[in-house]
């Protein structure tokens, strides 16, 4: 695996691969890799001959009081994990490479509406930062496929919309959420939890499972299910931000029983903000 830090070096490498007829897969990450990220790489390898991963802690997607400065950065460990997973190229730009004129003057890409609901209500500007950096990375790497985790279900939905609206010739592949043995969705931010908090963190997943059980049994009292879903993490000591039943394709309010549903939740626990979701089978 090669590691490069400039847009030009990525383009040069991808151009050569493409000239040889290879399909290119891409996984954007913020590093501090865990098994969830590696599962994306495995999904990507199935659809393409060459594989690029980026590691960039994107300042534009962090709010002023968020954890940008403290976000775990583990470059050499990440490089080892990527190489072991069969990655061909690791792209590790610095902020100057991605935002040469600074954040304030940079062109931004925004998906309206979808970016302002759910997590967007609690993290203003977050998804604009995500779509801006992903649009830039798509233009730099120019992959055939890009893989995103269902763990960040709203992000995946927003990226799909951006790709459709901006006519990117890129296939978006969704990879299922990878969980710890007790059900907690793997996340780089789980390491902010104390041992006591770590023990109660899986209760968010438990609340989602409870809601999905009721929905699968055709309970359609959405308001009552959402209320119960907020109470469960609160009772465990978390501060619930939202617990919402939505149409899986649009993230809009569920209209009729034929739609596929997803339950999404976010809660604060100590220094961590946990997000998770489950589709109704
Ligand atoms: P991040 O480094 O947190 O920006 O995540 C990079 C990619 O990995 C995103 O597409 C995430 O949805 C995905 N991802 C993060 N955690 C998991 C997980 N536990 N299971 C599956 N995908 C994940």
Characterise the protein shown here.
The chain is α/β, with parallel strands linked by helices. The protein folds into two domains: 2-175, HUPs (Rossmann fold), CATH 3.40.50.620; 188-279, Pantoate--beta-alanine Ligase, Chain: A,domain 2. The chain has helices at 7-19, 35-47, 75-84, 95-98, 119-122, 126-141, 153-165, 195-200, 203-216, 222-235, and strands at 2-4, 24-29, 50-55, 89-91, 145-149, 171-175, 239-247, 261-269, 272-279. α6 (126-141) crosses α7 and α9 (203-216) runs antiparallel to α10 (222-235). It is globular, with a radius of gyration of 19 Å. The model has no long low-confidence stretch (mean pLDDT 96). Bound molecules: adenosine monophosphate.
Could you give a quick summary of the protein structure above?
The protein is of the alpha/beta class and 281 residues long. 38% of the residues lie in helices and 19% in strands. The chain folds into two domains: 2-175, 3-Layer(aba) Sandwich (Rossmann fold), CATH 3.40.50.620; 188-279, Pantoate--beta-alanine Ligase, Chain: A,domain 2 (2-Layer Sandwich).
Helices and strands in order, then pairings?
Layout: E1 2-4, H1 7-19, E2 24-29, H2 35-47, E3 50-55, H3 75-84, E4 89-91, H4 95-98, H5 119-122, H6 126-141, E5 145-149, H7 153-165, E6 171-175, H8 195-200, H9 203-216, H10 222-235, E7 239-247, E8 261-269, E9 272-279
Parallel strand pairs: 1-4, 2-3, 2-5, 3-4, 5-6
Antiparallel strand pairs: 7-8, 8-9
Helix pairs in contact: 6-7, 9-10
The structure holds adenosine monophosphate.
The site of adenosine monophosphate (AMP) has 17 residues, from helix 2 and strand 5.
């Amino acid at each position: 695996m090669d590691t490069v830090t400039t847009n030009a070096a990525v383009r040069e490498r991808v151009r050569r691969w493409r000239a040889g007829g290879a399909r290119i897969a891409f996984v954007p990450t913020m590093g501090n890799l865990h098994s969830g990220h590696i599962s994306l790489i495995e999904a990507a390898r199935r659809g393409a001959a060459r594989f690029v991963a980026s590691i960039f802690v994107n300042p534009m997607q962090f709010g002023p009081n968020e954890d940008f400065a403290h976000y775990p950065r583990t470059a050499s460990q990440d490089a080892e994990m990527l190489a072991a997973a069969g990655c061909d190229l690791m792209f590790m730009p610095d902020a100057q490479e991605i935002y040469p004129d600074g954040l304030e003057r940079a062109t931004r890409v925004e998906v309206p509406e979808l970016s302002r609901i759910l997590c967007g209500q609690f993290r203003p500007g977050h998804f604009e930062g995500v779509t801006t950096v992903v649009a830039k990375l798509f233009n730099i790497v120019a992959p055939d496929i890009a893989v995103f985790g269902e763990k960040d279900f709203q992000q995946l939905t927003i990226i799909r919309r951006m790709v459709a609206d901006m006519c990117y010739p890129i296939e978006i592949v969704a990879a299922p959420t990878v969980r710890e043995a007790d059900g907690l969705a793997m996340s780089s931010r789980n390491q902010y939890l104390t041992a006591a908090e770590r023990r109660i963190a899986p209760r968010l997943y438990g609340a989602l499972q409870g809601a999905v059980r009721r929905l699968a049994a055709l309970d359609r009292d959405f308001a009552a299910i959402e209320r119960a879903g907020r109470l469960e993490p609160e009772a465990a000591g978390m501060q619930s931000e939202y617990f919402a039943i939505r149409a899986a394709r649009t993230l809009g309010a569920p209209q009729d029983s034929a739609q596929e549903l997803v339950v999404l939740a976010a809660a604060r626990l100590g220094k961590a903000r946990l997000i998770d979701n489950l589709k109704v089978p």
